[in-house]
Amino acid sequence: MSKPSNSAFSAPKGVPDYVPPASAEFVAVRDGLTRAARLAGYGHIELPIFEDTGLFARGVGESTDVVSKEMYTFADRGDRSVTLRPEGTAGVMRAVIEHALDRGQLPVKLSYSGPFFRYERPQAGRYRQLQQVGVEAIGVDDPALDAEVIAIADAGFRSLGLEGFRLEITSLGDDTCRPQYRELLQEFLFGLDLDEDTRRRAEINPLRVLDDKRPHIKEMTADAPLMLDHLSQEAKAHFEEVLAHLDALGVPYVVNPRMVRGLDYYTKTTFEFVHDGLGAQSGIGGGGRYDGLMEQLGGQPLSGIGFGLGVDRTVLALAAEGKTAGSPARCEVFGVPLGDEAKAQMVVIAAQLRAAGIRVDMAYGGRGVKGAMKAADRSGAKIALVLGERDIVDGVIGVKDLATGDQRQVQLGEVVTEVGAILADG
Ligand code: HAM
């Protein structure tokens, strides 16, 4: 992503621009991931980019880094505290409650895509404006639904040609077993020789300590009790059923009992998609069940499960595998008019072709034939239409195959049919 050298401004730090031709890759990834959700009956939900700050504090959890350190929060001109959404789930729950979608048919299945904002330290694959495709399925606590959500993400990545990723999965238990486990873990952690910061973390959110990457902490916590060994009967049965469904679906997974997510609302099934070609920022998607969230936000005590897939990181993961998902071609046909009269005609021909559903661009600005042909090549078009003053008199137009260089004249009145036939032929 290069910057024009003489620009007075640049994009905010840590915020990517996607410009052509690379933006085609971004669009293909976003649309490919969204399509996987559409195939499973998820309806589109479009939500505000900013919400009441309290929604995220209450929904995502005040002890999380996302809420305590990374939110873009400001007072609007009416002195209300608003926050640029750092994630999508809390906003979806707010809208489901507000519009009483949970009073209709369950599960409520919704999908979304768009930008989210986190004031993180920028690095490769970690941006302050990040793009996600997400789904949420609300109101039914069924392991088959957990498996569906996971399988959609897996299918979405694979539909793009991505291969070098793995699904890590665990269960974070429910409110009948998690409080006891938390105590057990704290007891273990308080018995260790921890520095003050880590001890404080153990008090607020002991699970986070298991995610500490420092070698000496890793060593000390190697024998820590794990949630998976202390699940309630119900949570255990739920988890085993999810795994059985994934087996039946042929979705490969690795159970990672030490997985820790950055958001507080998760219960039971929790998962992450990890790609090894990305360095430190290896999570290309993540999600899980959040059975207490709706009630916490003032709604009914309904369960939910969903995911957020990182579009930016998936673009990088594809590049790391040497693959492309999008076509950089802006158009299929490029018009090359030679002279003013030809240009006037070409404008009309281009509109006719567009009306027939063909993607067309043309040379503007009185370029010479050389420059116009160069523009035709750069556009990625398959066909150039070449129109000279003489052709107009004869009522013909040159149709040039830009791959082979072959050119033939066709009747002007036939150009839409002829071009359509060539493109249909591949
Ligand atoms: P999350 O794990 O925080 O989950 O984010 C989901 C994905 O967004 C990550 O796996 C990653 O690919 C991408 N992502 C997150 N932060 C950044 C960043 N700074 N730069 C680039 N990509 C990033 C959630 O947001 C949950 N709302 C997912 C969910 C939906 N859980 C249940 N339903």
TrEMBL record:
GO terms for cellular component: cytoplasm. Pfam families: HGTP_anticodon (PF03129), tRNA-synt_His (PF13393). The keyword Protein biosynthesis applies. Residues 37-328 form the Aminoacyl-transfer RNA synthetases class-II family profile domain. GO terms for biological process: histidyl-tRNA aminoacylation. L-histidine binds at E87, G88, T89, R118, Q132, E136, R261, Y265, Y266. Keywords: Aminoacyl-tRNA synthetase, ATP-binding, Cytoplasm, Ligase, Nucleotide-binding, Protein biosynthesis. PROSITE patterns: AA_TRNA_LIGASE_II (PS50862). It is found in: Cytoplasm. GO terms for molecular function: ATP binding; histidine-tRNA ligase activity. Belongs to the class-II aminoacyl-tRNA synthetase family. Homodimer. This is Histidine--tRNA ligase. The lineage of its organism: Bacteria, Bacillati, Actinomycetota, Actinomycetes, Mycobacteriales.
